[in-house]
Amino acid sequence: MFNNILIIGLGLIGGSILQGILDNRLADNLYAVDFDKSVIDNAIKDKLITNGDDELLTLAKTGVLKDCECIIIAVPAFAVKTVLSQIKTAIDDKLLPSDIIISDTASTKGNVLQDAFAIFGELPPNLVLAHPIAGAEKSGFMARNGALFKSHKLIICPHDFNDKQAVDKIATLWQSLGASVDFMPCDKHDEVLALTSHLPHLLSYALTYQLAKDEESLNIFRYAGGGFRDFSRISASSPIMWHDIFLANKQAVLKGLDSYQAILNQLKSAIENDNSDDLLTTFEIAKNAREHFGRLLIEKEKLKNGV
């Protein structure tokens, strides 16, 4: 698909993209940048990448990126602005092609658009915002999985000035990694993800924190059942990444949190007043919705396994 691809950030997502590109032979040369130089050194030693460095401009000054066709930014939300600034400098210094496709994997999009406009003075037509709805409990380059995105959603958020060919190339790349590509406006993406991903993580962190700070936390954890295990699993995710996501998508998260707080107050009132009808109605609606979601998950798993 591409002769040369640069991946910036070799955590779980960036590393899995790299592995998927290798497994599916989607590029001739892979380059990488990661702040952890040991990750880069090991990736070069294992012949996973052609070259790499812990600084983008240092790597670019060697001249190896002058024919690079695509950059995928896979770093925490608040680090994207710095990366975009370095890319702008490299383009201005003719160390990167001016028409190079720039894409990302961030869970929030409004802040990326704002950062891109601030740095480039416009929204570059070759900037294609993308977000893979996939993850794993373990993080880091060693947890990478080339099949991580298979049968998972990949949302592309085109902006008004996007080059259609650049959007099509990024969509095809993700489809080649096994993802199912959907398109969504940036503001809608941030609103939907606040409810389906960001808020659940916040609640998981909150409950796990509540139990962890309890004086009897050791006994509480010892007797915790499957419900706590399943609900708390996502609070094992990267604190830095989620710190950035909550602040970057502040308004949408706060709106969702207000709605959730209102429902909690209704449930609290129903319990205080022994209002069985309200409790049962709420639980039945939630149960039916979860069963519908469960059926969707089963269908997705069948697709993933080729059934």
What do these coordinates show?
- With 307 residues, the protein is α/β, with parallel strands linked by helices.
- Helix content is 54%, strand content 13%.
- It has an eight-stranded mixed beta sheet with strand order 3-2-1-4-5-6-7-8.
- Strand 2 (27-33), helix 2 and strand 3 (51-53) form a beta-alpha-beta unit.
- Helix 4 (80-92) runs parallel beside helix 5 and helix 7 (186-212) packs across helix 11.
- The longest helix is centred in the C-terminal third of the chain and has 29 residues, at 276-304.
- It is elongated and about 70 Å long.
- The mean pLDDT is 93.
Count the strands?
A: 8
Any idea what the shape is? elongated
Sheet of most strands: 8 strands, mixed
- How far from one another are the termini? 28 Å
Helix-strand topology string: EHEHEHEHEHEEHEHHHHHH
Q: Helix count?
A: 12
State Rg: 21 Å
Sheet with the most strands: spatial strand order:
3-2-1-4-5-6-7-8
| Poorly predicted runs of 5 or more residues | none
> What's the pLDDT, averaged over the residues?
93
Q: Which structural category fits the helices and strands?
A: alpha/beta
